[in-house]
Specification:
- The protein is of the alpha/beta class.
- It folds into four domains: 55 residues, N-terminal domain of TfIIb (Single Sheet); 275 residues, Rossmann fold; 193 residues, Dimethylsulfoxide Reductase, domain 2; 117 residues, Barwin-like endoglucanases, CATH 2.40.40.20.
- The chain contains 25 helices and 26 strands.
- A seven-stranded mixed β-sheet has the order 5-4-16-15-14-6-7, sandwiched between helices. Strands 21-25-22-24-23-26 form a six-stranded mixed barrel.
- A hairpin with a 2-residue loop joins strand 4 and strand 5.
- The protein is globular, with a radius of gyration of 24 Å.
- Bound molecules: iron/sulfur cluster.
- The site of iron/sulfur cluster has 14 residues, from helix 1 and helix 7.
- Belongs to the prokaryotic molybdopterin-containing oxidoreductase family. NasA/NapA/NarB subfamily.
- Keywords: 4Fe-4S, Iron, Iron-sulfur, Metal-binding, Molybdenum, Nitrate assimilation, Oxidoreductase.
- This is Assimilatory nitrate reductase catalytic subunit.
C-alpha cells in the first residue's frame, strides 16, 4: 500500500477449473479508472494447491476490472429498478406457467455459480415451480462421469482425493490433458513422477500431458471402450483381477466377462482396433498389472462423447475388478472442468436429480418436498441442456432464465441455440458481464463477479471451500442467490427469506443431514457437521471434504470399507460394448473435428480475455491438422484455413503439427463474437448426445478443411 500499511489478505478460491486452488488476495491502491487493483498468490494452507497457482490463477488480478460489466438491471434495453425488473420476471414466469404449465419454463445455469446460488435456483424450479427444467452447463463437461458413477456406485460419488495422485505408482490420463486443463494438479503429479511415478496418456492428440509421459497411446478416436475392455480381458487372462474383492463387494463381473467374450480380446486385435502399436499396448497392460497403486483420471476427452457413459464405466469396471478403489493411491478419478460443477451435482443443478443426490423416485421426491414444504415439487426429471434449447426452439419452453453462462457460444450447434433464444418469448439473463447471450435477453440482471461473491464451491475431490468477497458490489450488482430468491418471493412463494448466504448454506446442509428428511439409508453426501454453522463459523470455514458427519470431520476417501451406495451395498460392474461415433465421416466430410480448451483461456473468455499475459499464449483461433492432411489439402502452416461442417464454417489459423492424428482436427472452443466471431467452433458441432448422460459429442463431428483461398 502506498501509505505503508499492509493490505488485508482475503482467502478465497480460484474461479476457473475444478482443481479449486486456494487464493490469497490483497486489494491494493487503484491505479485504474475503475478503481480496482488486486494482487494474488497461491494459498499455501489450501490442501488443493499448497501455494501453487497456474497461469490463469496468477492473472486473476488483471481480470477484476469493470470493463463490460452489467451494473444495472435492464428491461428491453432500458435501465430499470431492481423492483421493476424482479416484478416483471416474476409476472412473466407466473403467467407462462398459468397458461402453459410448469414445464413451459426453464433455467439454464452454470458451474460458475456458487453452491448457495445453485441451491436456491433448484429449490425455486424443482420445488416451487414444480418442473425439473433446470440444467447446468456442467452437462457439457462431466455428465457422463456422473451417469457412470450412479450406475457403478449407486450415487454420483468421486472415490478418491488429490493425495492419491501423490501416492500412486501409476497414473493413467484418459482423455485428460491435465497439463493445460488442471495445471496445478499436473505439477503435483510431475513431482511424483520425479520420484518414480509412471504416466500413461490415452489421447488421440499428443498433448503437453502426453509429451512428457512414459507412454502415450494415441488411440483412434472413440476407441476408449475397446482399449479398457481389452485391458480388463487381459487382466482376467493373466489372473490379475482381485477375486476376493469381487466376491465381497462387486456384482456384475460374470456379465461383463461374458460381454468381453463377444469380441476377440487378443492384444493384436485390440491394438488394431485402437490403431496403436502392439508393443505399446502390451507396455500399458504390463504397467497396469504391475502397479496396484493406480489412479485413472478421466475428463472431457472421455466424457464428451456419444458413448461417454460407457467410457466411464469401462474405466470403473477395471478398477472394481482389481479392487483398486477406496485405497490410498488407488482409484478411478473423474476431474471436473468448472470450479463448482460438483456443487451443482450436489444441490440438484442437473435436470435429472434432486438436491442431496436424491432422485425422482417417489420416496426421494417426497423427502425433498417435505423438507421444503413444497407439495408441488417436480415428480420427473426435466430437460437436459441440449434438449432444453431444442424445446425452446420448438416453442415448448416459452420463458428461460440463463444464469452466468453463454450458451450462444458454448453449446453444440450454437447457431440453432441462437435461433432458439431469438424465438423464445421471454429470455432473462443474469450475469456479471455482457456476453453473446445477453444480446437475446429481454431482461438483464447484474450479478456479482468473482472477487465480489461470497459463498462456497466444491472441487473435484469433494472439498468445499469458501469464495470470499474482495471488493464491494459494483453498481447495482447482486448475489445470484438473492436475485433468484427475490423473484421467488415476488412469485408468491414462501421459503426464500434467507438473510445471508450463510443461512442458505445452513439450510442446504440440513437437507443432506438425513434425519431432517426421515431418510435412514445413510447416504454418503452428508453435511450434517456443517448444518449448524453460524455466520461467523461459516465465514471462517476451512476447506473440508464431504461427507462431513456430525463430529465435523471431513472424509478424504470413499468406499474404504468396500460398501457402496447401492441397495445391497455392493458396487456394480456394467457390461459395455465399443461403438463408433454418432455421425460417421464420408467423402464430403472426411475429417473428425474435436473442440476443446487451451491452456490460458477459460470458457468464452469473458475474464481471461481481459488479461494480456493470457492472450499471448494463443492470440487467434486456430485449427490443428496433421502434416499429411495439410499437404493433401494444400493447407499451409500459419495460413488461414476454413473448417466446414454441415452446420457452418469457421476461419482459423492452420497449425500443422504431428501432435494431431491423421484424419483429425482440433479447434479451441473459446472465441466469441466479441473476440473473433469467425473463429467460433462449437456452432460447427453436431448436437449428438450420449443417450444416458445427455452430454454432447464435442470430440467428434465430421468436417472438411480448405485453404482460406483455394487456388
Ligand atoms: Fe485456478 Fe485451476 Fe489454475 Fe488452480 S489449476 S489456479 S483452480 S485455473
Amino acid at each position: 500500500m502506498a501509505d505503508g500499511s499492509a493490505a488485508a489478505l482475503v482467502k478465497t478460491t480460484c474461479p476457473y477449473c475444478g482443481v479449486g486452488c486456494g487464493v490469497s488476495g490483497a486489494v491494493g491502491q487503484a491505479p485504474s479508472s475503475d478503481g480496482r487493483a488486486l494482487s494474488v498468490a497461491g494459498d499455501a494452507a489450501h490442501p488443493a494447491n499448497l501455494g501453487r497457482l497456474c497461469s490463469k490463477g496468477t492473472a486473476l488480478g488483471a481480470t477484476v476490472g469493470l470493463q463490460g460489466r452489467l451494473l444495472e438491471p435492464t428491461v428491453n434495453g432500458k435501465a430499470a429498478s431492481w423492483a421493476d425488473a424482479t416484478a416483471l420476471v416474476a409476472k412473466r414466469f407466473r403467467d407462462t406457467i398459468a397458461r402453459h404449465g410448469p414445464d413451459s419454463v426453464a433455467f439454464y445455469v452454470s458451474g460458475q455459480i456458487l453452491t448457495e446460488d445453485y441451491y436456491v435456483a433448484n429449490k425455486l424450479m424443482k420445488g416451487f415451480i414444480g418442473s425439473g427444467n433446470i440444467d447446468t452447463n456442467s452437462r457439457l463437461c462431466m455428465a457422463s462421469a456422473v451417469a457412470a458413477h450412479k450406475q457403478a456406485f449407486g450415487a454420483d460419488l468421486v472415490p478418491g482425493c488429490y493425495e492419491d495422485l501423490d501416492l500412486a505408482d501409476l497414473v493413467v490420463f484418459s482423455g485428460h490433458n491435465a497439463a493445460w486443463t488442471h495445471p496445478v494438479l499436473f505439477r503435483r503429479m510431475e513431482a511424483a513422477k520425479a520420484r518414480g511415478q509412471k504416466h500413461v496418456v490415452i489421447d488421440p492428440r499428443r498433448t503437453d500431458t502426453a509429451e512428457g509421459a512414459d507412454l502415450h497411446l494415441a488411440i483412434a478416436p472413440q476407441s476408449d471402450v475397446r482399449l479398457w475392455n481389452g485391458l480388463l480381458a487381459h487382466l482376467i487372462r493373466i489372473d490379475a483381477v482381485d477375486r476376493d474383492y469381487i466376491a465381497a463387494h462387486v456384482n456384475g463381473f460374470d456379465a461383463v466377462e461374458a460381454t468381453l467374450a463377444e469380441l476377440d480380446q487378443s492384444p493384436a486385435a485390440v491394438a488394431a482396433d485402437c490403431d496403436v502399436a502392439l508393443d505399446d499396448l502390451l507396455s500399458f497392460y504390463k504397467l497396469f498389472a504391475d502397479n496396484p497403486k493406480t489412479v485413472s483420471l478421466f475428463s472431457m476427452g472421455a466424457n464428451q462423447s456419444a458413448q461417454g457413459t460407457a467410457k466411464g464405466l469401462s474405466i470403473l469396471n477395471v478398477h472394481l475388478a482389481t479392487g483398486r478403489i477406496g485405497k490410498p493411491g488407488s482409484c478411478p478419478f473423474s476431474i471436473t472442468g468448472q470450479p463448482n460443477a460438483m456443487g451443482g451435482r450436489e444441490t440438484g443443478g442437473m435436470a435429472n436429480t434432486l438436491a442431496g443426490h436424491m432422485d425422482f423416485a417417489p420416496a426421494d421426491r417426497d423427502r425433498v418436498a417435505r423438507f421444503w414444504g413444497a407439495p408441488d415439487t417436480a415428480r420427473a426429471p426435466g430437460l437436459k441442456a441440449v434438449d432444453m434449447f431444442e424445446a425452446i426452439h420448438a416453442g415448448k419452453i416459452k420463458a428461460v432464465w440463463v444464469m452466468a453462462t453463454n450458451p450462444a457460444v458454448s453449446l453444440p450447434d450454437a447457431g440453432r441455440v441462437r435461433e432458439a433464444l431469438d424465438r423464445c418469448p421471454f429470455v432473462v439473463v443474469s450475469d456479471c458481464v455482457e456476453t453473446d447471450t445477453t444480446a437475446f435477453a429481454d431482461v438483464k440482471l447484474p450479478a456479482l463477479a468473482w472477487g465480489e461473491k461470497d459463498g462456497t464451491v466444491t472441487n473435484s475431490e469433494r472439498r468445499i471451500s469458501r469464495q470470499r468477497a474482495l471488493f464491494p458490489a459494483p453498481g447495482q450488482a447482486r448475489a445470484d442467490w438473492r436475485i433468484v430468491a427475490d423473484v421467488a418471493k415476488a412469485m408468491g412463494f414462501d421459503g426464500f427469506g434467507w438473510s445471508s448466504q450463510a443461512s442458505v448454506f445452513r439450510e442446504w446442509a440440513r437437507l443432506t443431514a438425513y434425519e431432517n428428511t426421515g431418510d435412514e439409508t445413510g447416504r454418503v453426501l452428508n453435511l450434517a457437521g456443517l448444518s449448524t454453522l453460524t455466520p461467523e463459523t461459516y465465514d471462517q470455514l476451512l476447506p473440508i471434504q464431504w461427507p462431513v458427519r456430525a463430529d465435523g470431520r471431513g472424509t478424504p476417501r470413499l468406499f474404504t470399507d468396500g460398501r457402496f451406495q447401492t441397495p445391497d451395498g455392493r458396487a456394480r460392474m456394467v457390461p459395455v460394448r465399443p461403438k463408433g461415433p454418432a455421425d460417421a465421416m464420408d467423402a464430403a466430410y472426411p475429417l473428425s473435428l474435436n473442440t476443446g480448451r487451451i491452456r490460458d483461456q477459460w470458457h468464452t473468455m469473458t475474464r481471461t480475455g481481459l488479461a494480456p499475459d493470457l492472450c499471448r499464449h494463443a492470440p487467434e483461433p486456430f485449427v490443428e491438422v496433421h502434416p499429411a492432411d495439410a499437404e493433401a489439402l494444400g493447407v499451409q502452416d500459419g495460413a488461414l484455413a476454413r473448417v466446414i461442417t454441415v452446420r457452418g464454417e469457421a476461419v482459423a489459423l492452420a497449425k500443422v503439427t504431428e501432435r494431431q492424428r491423421p484424419g483429425g482436427l482440433f479447434m479451441p472452443m473459446h472465441w466469441t463474437d466479441a473476440f473473433a466471431p469467425s473463429g467460433r467452433s462449437n456452432h460447427l458441432i453436431a448436437p449428438n448426445l450420449d443417450p444416458t448422460s445427455g452430454q454432447p459429442e464435442f470430440k467428434h463431428t465430421p468436417a472438411r478443411l480448405r485453404p482460406y483461398r483455394e487456388t
